[in-house]
Write a structure and sequence with these properties.
By secondary structure, the chain is an alpha+beta fold. It is built from 15 helices and 38 strands. A hairpin with a 2-residue loop joins strand 15 and strand 16. It holds the Pfam family Hydant_A_N. One of its GO terms (cellular component) is cytosol. This is Hydantoinase A.
Length: 691
């Protein structure tokens, strides 16, 4: 199933004459391709994904898109890819066979973890099993003190004797993570070098080469995650690069990483853990760029797919970031876009709980069998079915390529409604109200809980289902407005087109006293030197100057969490900046508390050249609707006009209710709301009294 569309969008053009930029985002159902041309237009294309061999869909989609444009692979000047290979390997537990070498006495580090349940009041809650089983964990006799001084030297003969046992275990990757190696990694590298020399496994990883931060559990977990996904990611990217070479693509392969920047294919093969949130980051980076383009100060990025909703906060055109988090229950110590994911999407299933209440999700019908109306064997009412039965969706999706089967969904809704003691209309409306409440909690998580007044925020809604729910979220949360980008269904690929090349560096510090800035400065200078080396190596075809930023992790004495802020050589300015950031994030500051420094950081970014702006043509007036149908709003049916989005005029306010349809999504505007399309093609939904 292929789909295509074309538009002129501000900021989406190629910077050099003659070449094209290509961004490819691989999803579970579709692979999205965006091609940016020198004249400022963007051409988009979708093909069905090939989960068994994702590169097949990537190559097929790119060739089809270029064929439609009359372009050749030899004209690609930039090739960017967002991949879910690492994420899927972890979710499905199909990663590599990983062994762990650690300090004597610490073999149970991963099993013990935090010694706490994920959910305090749920006695059945369990953490996921460690990715390295006990039988694949080995100990070496060595020890460094917390300050890096050597308490027990490495017995190299013992390591060589242990190597035979490790080799016999037939592992794909060996991770070496030794106690306090973040202070001095010489022991860790010594063991890793011996194991590499003896070829005990195809890959041997020193944990400090992946994450050089304190906290042994998180550091080891991050390195193990890297080892677990590396075999699949490495082999996939190697195949893709070889196929691009066969097509004579002159551009390097750039891969979207979790922090919203790009790394080379080579780096992604070595440090595959950086791609665990690759798919999520592209959409957020795109939303951040669009927020800056539209002059929106506080934006909530809102990406809804079939099974989940990904939410992020964007302030002044920059998404919030985190330096630590969890994925699938495993700690991850790696800079990443701060995305909050909830189990709410178009395929979320409606069900009746033991108390007789209506619940929706988190379990999902997924792509197969999918919602009942897709006609693929689904048997449970989903959010998509509710949209169809309330008139929000028409008879088909994807430009008529996917027909929606209404009768079986109606029959199943009657059964659910009877169980709930409701009439079918109210039951379907209840499904949307419940999922809206779930999504609203997710939005509050990244806004209200961070000291942001939600009434000052704009929702940037994308993904295939985002525009269906934007109207409801504006009403539920009292948001200022919702904005729908020109191609919300392929927002991640669009976001990747102009993503910068980026790498992050971190090091421990010789003192935890934040006032001792003279001792911390040399550490930052060393990180800057490493960052400059990265820029020299990776700048490649970017053609733009780099930006290197010095950062530090700070906290009040006794806290177990840190805030990352820009470095200031003045202790007083550093303190003022931290107090202000803490007050903004948590609602208070403590000017009398001692300030601790935990780590030094450096971020190197290589932006792409400025792009040409292309404005959308002005349409003269509101066209006649292509159809009308009954749509359920606020307990009643309304005769609602249906428009094609591409035919709506720019800078003309249209009052709801209305439905705007396009190839990759459907946009709902409620009776008490209005919408307009700006000169760049973004559709704005606002309360009628604010229009």
């Amino acid at each position: 199933m292929d789909q295509q569309s074309e538009t002129g969008v501000s900021g989406e053009a190629s910077a050099r004459d003659g070449g094209v930029r290509v961004a490819v985002d691989t999803g579970g159902t579709f692979t999205d391709i965006a091609v940016s041309r020198p004249d400022g237009t963007v051409f988009v294309w979708k093909v069905s994904s090939s989960p068994a061999s994702p590169d097949d869909a990537v190559i097929a989609g790119v060739l089809e898109a270029l064929g439609e444009l009359g372009e050749s692979p030899t004209q690609i000047e930039r090739f960017v890819h967002g991949t879910t290979v690492a994420t899927n390997a972890l979710i499905t537990r199909t990663g590599g066979r990983v062994g762990l070498v650690t300090t004597a006495g610490f073999r149970d580090l991963l099993a013990i973890g935090y010694q706490s349940r994920p959910h305090l009041y749920d006695p059945n809650s369990r953490r996921p099993a460690a990715l390295v089983p006990a039988e694949l964990t080995w100990e070496v006799g060595e020890r460094l003190a917390a300050d890096g001084s050597e308490l027990r030297a490495i017995d190299e003969a013992a390591v060589r004797a242990l190597a035979a046992e490790i080799e016999a275990a037939d592992v794909d990757v060996v991770v070496v993570s030794l106690l306090n190696a973040y202070v001095d990694n010489s022991h860790e590298h010594q063991v890793a070098d011996v194991l590499r020399e003896l070829s005990v496994a195809p890959s041997v990883i020193a944990a400090t080469d992946v994450s050089a931060e304190m906290r042994e559990f998180e550091r080891t977990s991050t390195a193990v995650l890297n080892g677990y996904v590396q075999p699949k990611v490495g082999s996939y990217l190697e195949r893709l690069e070889n196929r691009l070479v066969e097509l004579q693509v002159p551009a390097r392969l750039w891969v979207m990483q979790s922090n919203g920047g790009l790394i080379s294919g080579r780096t992604a093969r070595d440090q595959s853990v950086r791609t665990l949130l690759s798919g999520l980051a592209g959409g957020v980076i795109g939303a951040a760029r669009w927020a800056g383009q539209l002059g929106l100060d506080q934006v909530v990025s809102f990406d809804i797919g079939g099974t989940s909703t990904d939410i992020a906060l964007i302030r002044a055109g920059q998404p919030d970031e985190m330096t630590a988090g969890e994925i699938e229950g495993y700690p991850l110590r790696m800079p990443a876009v701060d995305v909050h994911t909830i189990g709410a999407g178009g395929g979320s299933i409606a069900w009746r709980d033991s108390g007789g209440g209506l619940r929706v999700g988190p379990h999902s019908a997924g792509a197969t069998p999918g919602p009942i109306c897709y006609g693929r064997g689904g048997e449970d009412i989903t959010v998509t079915d509710a949209h169809l039965l309330l008139g929000r969706l028409g008879e088909s999706l994807l430009g008529g390529r996917l027909s929606l089967d209404r009768p079986p969904a109606e029959a199943r809704l009657r059964t659910l409604a009877a169980d709930l003691g409701l009439d079918p209309d109210k039951a379907a409306d209840g499904v949307l109200r419940v999922i809206t409440a779930t999504m609203a909690r997710g939005v509050r998580k990244v806004s209200v809980e961070r000291g942001i007044d939600i009434r000052d925020c704009t929702l940037m809604a994308f993904g295939g289902a985002g525009p269906l729910h934007a109207s409801d979220l504006v009403r539920e949360l009292g948001l200022r407005a919702a904005v729908i980008p020109p191609h919300p269904g392929i927002a991640s690929a669009m976001g990747m087109l102009d993503a910068p090349i980026r790498s992050d560096f971190v090091a421990s510090v010789p003192t935890n006293d934040a006032t001792a800035t003279a001792q911390i400065a040399p550490v930052l200078d060393e990180l800057v030197t490493r960052a400059e080396g990265f820029v020299a190596q990776e700048s490649g075809d970017s053609g733009a100057a780099s930006v290197i930023e010095k950062l530090v992790d700070l906290r009040y004495l006794g806290q177990s969490y840190e805030l990352t802020i820009a470095w200031q050589s003045s202790p007083e300015q550093l303190r003022q900046q931290f107090d202000r950031a803490h007050r903004e994030r948590y609602g208070f500051d403590d000017p009398h508390a001692r300030l601790e420094i935990v780590a030094a950081r450096c971020s190197a970014t290589i932006p792409v050249p400025a792009t040409v702006e292309v404005n959308q043509d002005m349409a003269p007036q509101v066209p006649a609707p292509v159809a009308k149908r009954a749509v359920f709003f606020d307990g009643a049916w309304h005769d609602t006009p249906i428009y094609r989005r591409t035919e709506l005029p720019t800078e003309v306010t249209i009052n709801g209710p209305l439905i705007a349809e396009q190839l990759d999504t459907t946009i709902v505007v409620a009776p008490d709301q209005a919408c307009r399309i700006d000169e760049h093609g973004f559709l704005h939904i606002t309360p009628e009294d604010k229009a």
